[in-house]
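Hi C.,

You asked whether I'd gotten around to modeling the 522-residue construct. I have! Everything is below, sequence then structure, no commentary in between.
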Amino acid sequence: MGADDTRDPVSAILPPMSVSIQFLGAVGTVTGSQFLVTAGDRQVVVDCGMFQGAPEEVSRNRMPFAFDPKSLDALLLTHAHLDHCGRIPALVRAGFRGPIHATGGTLDLAEIVLRDAAKLQEEAENRWRRKHPDEAAAHDAELASEEAAVEDDAQMPAKLRSAPAEGMTMTRTALYSMADVEQTVTQFSPVAYDAPLTLMDGITATFRDAGHILGSAIIELRVTDEGGDTTIVFSGDLGRCDTPILRDPTPISHADFVLVESTYGNREHAPHEQAIEELAQAINEVASDRGVLLVPSFAVGRTQELVWVLDELYRDKRIPRLPLYLDSPMASRASDVYLRHPEDYDEETATLLRSGSSPLIYPGETYTNEVDASKGIRTQPRPLMLVASSGMLTGGRIMHHLKDFLPDPACTLLFIGYQGEGTLGRHIQSGAKVAKIDGEAYPIRCRVRVISGFSAHADEHELDDWLGNFAKAGGTTGGDGRPKRVFVTHGDPDAAEAFAVRIRAMGMEPHLPTYLETVQLR
C-alpha cells in the first residue's frame, strides 16, 4: 500500500460495488427529505423526514417506504427539523432496527421533536374522534388497508403544491405512537463532527458543521473498494454566514456527487441589520397600537435566534419591554439543549457564555407549557409578543392563535421563515384575504409582515459561494474536485431551476431529480 493510499485495508479487498441513489423526498418540493443509497447489497438512508404543507400531509406521510425497513443497514440524519427526521419513528415501527447516526446536538433535539410530534398527532387524532364519533369505528376497520390506497407516484410533488391551502388541528389517525419514539431513541448513535465513522466494510460517513441549527450536518458518504473511492456529499440544509449563535457552514471542495439544497435558490435575503431594524419597527408598531405581534416560528433554531435578537434590541433600548410568550413546550426544551451544547457555538456566543451572560434569555419571557395557558394568552394585557409553532402554519398551537388574531386589525402576523408552496403560511403571505382552518373561514384583517433576513437557510449567493468551493478546487488524486453531477434538492421548482442555471455556469452538471427516480452512480 503506497503512502498516498488512505483506504481501509479491510475495505480495500472488497470487490467493486455498484452504487445508486434513489430520491424519495425533497425533490420538486422543499420537505420530506429522504435519500436511499445502495452500495452492493448494503442500504443506507440519509434523512427520513415528513412532507409538510396542505391537509394531504398525513396521507402522503403514510405512504409505504420504497424499501424494506427491516433490511436497511443504517440511517444518517442531517439535522432535527421535522421535514428531515419526522418519519423516523414510522420507519422504526415498520421494522427498522439499525443505528441512527447523527451529532449529539441533533439527537438531543430530535428526541424532543419526535416526542412532541407523537404527542401532537395523538391529540389531533383524539380531536377528530371527538368531533366524528360516528365515523371513528368505520375508520378503524378501514385503517388496515389505508396504506395500500395511498398514491405513490412521480407526480406526487406537483399534486401537493396544487392542493388547497388549509390549516388543520385534527387527523384521522396518528402516524406513530410515543412507544415508537421510545424505541427510536434506543437506536440513536451520536457522532462527532469531522471524525470519519465506519458504517460497515467499505462505507464511511463524515459529518461536517452545516451551521443551520444546533448539530446540523453536511454528510460526506464514501464508498471504497477495489474500484476506488466514490464520495457523495449531502448538504442537508445549509445555514448562513455571520449569524448569531452557530458557526458558518463548513466549506467542502471535493466530491464525486453532490446533493445540494435550493430552498432559497432564487432569492436574496435582506442584510441581517436590516432584518433587525424591520423587527424593531414591527414591535414598536404593535406597542403603539396595543396589539399582538404573532410570530410563527420553528421551535428549534429560529426561536432561539429570535430570543437572542429581542434581548439585544431591548438592551440597546430600541424596543420597549413587552411581555414575550414562547408558546411551545418544545421550544423551551430545545433552548435547554442549546445551552447544553456550547461546543457547537461560534466564538462570539462562546465568549458571552464564558462571561456569565446568556444570549438565549429575554427579560420577562414566559414559556406556556400547558394548552389552557396557551389559550389563555388571548386574554392577557396588551401589547404583547407571541411566538408559536409551526413555522409554516401546518399545525401546532399557532393554529388557535390564528383563529383569535387574524381578524384583529391591531395585530401583526410576522413571518420570519420560509413558507413552502401549498402551505397556509404561503397562502397568507401571498396576500390572501381569508384563511381556512378546520373547515372554517377566518377573515385576515391583521397586518401581515415578512422579514427574510432571519432565515436559517443560505440564500442564492450563499448557496453559490458554498457550491463554488467545488468549482475552485485544485487537483487531487481523485480529480480536480468538481463533482460529476450536482443533484438539486430541497426546493420548489422555480428555486431549483434557477439554481441549476447558475450551477451550469460554474462549469458543473446540474440534475433536477424527480420523485422516486433512481440514478446509477457507478
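If it helps when you're writing up: The chain has two domains: 14-134+144-267+457-520, 272-450.

Thanks,
B.
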